[in-house]
Amino acid sequence: MSADLIARIIGMIVFSIGGAFAGNGISNYYHQGQPLIYTIIFGLVGALIGLVVTPYLTTRPMRGLRTWLTRLSADALITSLFGLIAGLLIAALLAFPLSLLPPPYGKILPFLGALIFGYLGMAIFVMRKSDIVNMLGGLSSRRENGAPTSWGQTNRTILLDTSVIIDGRVADIAKTGFLPGTLLIPRFVLNELQYIADSPDGLRRARGRRGMEVLSELQKAASVLVRISDIDVEGVREVDDKLVILARQLKCPILTNDYNLNRVAELQGVLILNINELANAIKSVVLPGELMEVNVIQEGKEINQGVGYMEDGTMVVVENGNKYLNQQIHVTVTKVLQTAAGRMIFARPEGKE
């Protein structure tokens, strides 16, 4: 039984009782005969009003308030609470002198002062949220070397996409400490991951189950903060669109390796943390003329070419390398080419021109 239905039933009973009393009172006041008829009519009208109006007075406002609160970040909630306390303290200090004013001002102004200063305190603290959070971080948190660190930096929220959970590298990256803050996984992302894990296609099912294992590994890691939230975006069905809107509302980045989501989010001003870009950034840097050792494992597309790979997966194309298949040889780098698929290194066997 839903909350709306329960509220409607309770409202119908309460309003019908109130209508019955009102009908009886009206009948007695105007000295009308047959008060039972008035009682029944007003009771039925009250029941109808209670059946229709009650959800808009109870469950709907509470649901809207809950949705609004879930969209607020922890920083906004904490700063608004501090602002409310500060505003009420100021109102309490002014309450006594205001109460000495002649009536009715002495009775009304202290109450109005509490409302006004409470609201002003919350509004001012929320507007200066980033400054207050950074100030608290500088006072309460320090790094191991003694330098201050920002509470907002170390406690930021990062939204996780389905693709990055399935990818699996996020678990290793998070354990290293390069993702400070809370990894937030909305319920709709978890539902999509479960849908993939239950897919009739064997490959998709295996990818979904791997994502579930990665998520379980993240939750078990002591150094990683993972939070699964029921927060949702109403009126939107696509998961990528929900993530972008949610990231804009929470003012937080999205961690993904989905190229299409990357482009769409960047066009809407959302910060993207792309694991593929991170992987390309940390690959070994080599320059033309450097010596390196590579194992030639296969022939290349061109004549006499051999192909090997570095430890980070970078492809090395060796001229005349087909002569050294399945051999570990020393090569000299001749050219480094950056492509959309990644970095490629061209080299020739050492001592060969």
Descriptive report:
- There is one protein chain.
- The protein is of the alpha/beta class and 353 residues long.
- Among the domains are: 3-63, no CATH class; 156-281, 5'-nuclease (Rossmann fold, 3-Layer(aba) Sandwich), CATH 3.40.50; 291-349, OB fold (Dihydrolipoamide Acetyltransferase, E2P) (Beta Barrel).
- 56% of the residues lie in helices and 16% in strands.
- The protein has 14 helices and ten strands.
- The chain has helices spanning 3-29, 35-57, 59-71, 74-99, 105-127, 129-140, 151-154, 162-167, 169-175, 187-197, 202-220, 239-250, 259-267, 275-281, and strands at 157-160, 182-186, 225-229, 254-256, 272-274, 291-299, 306-309, 315-318, 327-339, 342-349.
- The strands form two sheets. Strands 3-2-1-4-5 form a five-stranded parallel β-sheet. Strands 6-7-8-10-9 form a five-stranded mixed beta barrel.
- Strand 4, helix 13 (259-267) and strand 5 (272-274) form a beta-alpha-beta unit.
- Helix 4 (74-99) crosses helix 6 and helix 9 (169-175) packs parallel to helix 11 (202-220).
- The longest helix has 27 residues, at 3-29.
- It is elongated.
- The N and C termini lie far apart (81 Å).
Q: What is the oligomeric state here?
A: single chain
What do the pLDDT scores average to? 83
User: Superfamily at the CATH H level of the domain at 156-281?
Assistant: 5'-nuclease
- Helicity range of the residues? 55-70%
In the sheet with the most strands, the strands line up as 3-2-1-4-5
H/E element string?
Answer: HHHHHHHEHHEHHEHEHEHEEEEE
Count of distinct strands: 10
CATH class of the domain at 156-281 reads: Alpha Beta
Q: What can be said about the biggest beta sheet?
A: 5 strands, parallel
- CATH structural architecture of the domain at 156-281: 3-Layer(aba) Sandwich
Provide the structure class: alpha/beta
Low-confidence stretches: 141-154
Q: Radius of gyration over alpha carbons? A: 33 Å
CATH topology of the domain at 156-281: Rossmann fold
Shape: elongated
Beta-strand portion reads: 15-25%
**Helix count, per DSSP?**
14
